[in-house]
Amino acid sequence: MKQSKLFIPTLRDVPAEAEVKSHQLLLRAGYIRQIASGVYTYLPLAKKVLHKIEAIIREELEAIGSMELLMPSLQPAELWQESGRWYSYGPDLMRLKDRHERDFALGPTHEEVITSLIRNEVKSYKRLPLSLYQIQTKFRDEKRPRFGLLRGREFIMKDAYSFHANKESLDETYKDMYRAYTNIFSRCKLDFRAVLADSGAIGGKDTQEFMVLSEIGEDTIAYSDSSDYAANIEMAEVKTVYTKPDEAEKPLEKIPTPGQRTIAQIADFLKADPEKCLKTLVLKADDEYVIVLVRGDHDVNEVKVKHLLGSETIEMADPEAIKSIMGADPGSLGPVGAPEQIRILADHAVRYVVNGICGANENDFHYVNANPERDYRVDLYGDLRNIQEGDPSPDGKGTIRFARGIEVGHIFKLGTKYSEAMHAAFLDENGREQVMLMGCYGIGVSRTLTAVCEQHNDDKGLVWPVNLAPFDVHLVPVNMKDAQQSALAESLHAELEKQFTVLMDDRNERPGVKFADSDLIGLPVRVTVGKKAAEGIVEVKIRKTGEVLEVKKEDLAETISNILAQLAS
């Protein structure tokens, strides 16, 4: 392929809107362009990489018997209403109407569509288990698209769905998918971890995320320093054993705390430890408001609150609702004298706070010496806080450490969440009607591309793994106007393309521009045709290591082959 014929609009400067390395390099190296917030065009180089990622996915999924299909992006609201998600999915669902005022959604995922398909086509246990997947564009109306392809409103995703007659069959496919995902991300040369996770809006239980380790990751991974335990911080259990301090309870006292809002401010103002303070939040769980208490040095885990209540949705109450319920603004809230009709939930650690400090539900006032049961009620205790570094590992081995991660894959055991709601049933071997069990398995294809870029780059540009690079070789004649260089480059281009994919920079640009673009684009091997062209000698540079070799033209193919084999190992 001649570079003059390929659309690669490289940039010298870092675009102002690009916050992270992968976004900067994909823009600068001419792989993507933004058309709207969170919406991107994949240019030819990116499309080649996507094809390679998709090929790996197809190979691994077809190896475990999953078959590809393609479902519509435009989904009728009736299906989402059957599952109940039309009402619970929230503002991320892109909704629209056709000319007949019929409601539709642009699919963020396809549980409803696939369940509708299978319930109409599969009626007997003899046709189960069944595993189907697609690779398709998805849509989510992200409130704050960011980090380029990592969090967009339109993105490419592989979603697979499995249907089963019994739990053993579902467990087997789940394990197969786990192995396939491990193979996929390993073949993409990613440093990743499989972690326990929350199912979120998808639903179901028994779910794991595949997280690529990266400082820009939006998720925190809690892992043991002495075992293979790893979980998203949302799901990491706290197994800390608390003890009550040997301290006599003192009389409750209300004191002025002008301008003191945060735990840090209150602790400093009262010369107290943050763990003596109570952090009070008002959350909305479905249609119910609840008060949640954690110790001042802890953070509320909203996912744990949602699970404890069995809620579909959980979010912070808005300031107006908080003022209406509690009579004060955030920063002055507390459980003492809280409305009787509002349930109070508390983390286990709160039970052991003696003579605590909390808001008085009056702006600029706090209580000191507040004690549970004596001064305020707690309707339900539970594990409601985020695990912290240094806490005991939930598996009893070692202590917890943190890492940041980018979620690139997620596997779920859905059970009967969708099949029951949408009446996807079959006749078992005894002729009895049974509800199908389901699994769901997603990979962010465009996210995977970005994650690879985050882990494979240097200060000059991208450094693609061999099996994902858009081309194997970048052939760069220094001066196309030099007859000997031009002739040798054309000859090598024709010969090398018999064995490798080759991008030849035939542009009439300065050498510095060509080399800078080559480093930005990040192909595994660069062959420079320069001043020794008349002798039939070229310069071979390995992009990953920077190593440079002088090679005779007759040895070039073998040299490149050996280099690529070493890089791929």
UniProtKB/TrEMBL annotation:
GO terms for molecular function: aminoacyl-tRNA deacylase activity; ATP binding; catalytic activity, acting on a protein; proline-tRNA ligase activity; transferase activity. SUPFAM superfamilies: Class II aaRS ABD-related (SSF52954), Class II aaRS and biotin synthetases (SSF55681), YbaK/ProRS associated domain (SSF55826). Its main location: cytoplasm. One of its GO terms (cellular component) is cytosol. Its EC number is 6.1.1.15. Coiled coil: none annotated. CDD domains: ProRS-INS (cd04334), ProRS_anticodon_short (cd00861), ProRS_core_prok (cd00779). Belongs to the class-II aminoacyl-tRNA synthetase family. ProS type 1 subfamily. Consists of three domains: the N-terminal catalytic domain, the editing domain and the C-terminal anticodon-binding domain. This is Proline--tRNA ligase. It comes from Heyndrickxia coagulans. The lineage of its organism: Bacteria, Bacillati, Bacillota, Bacilli, Bacillales.
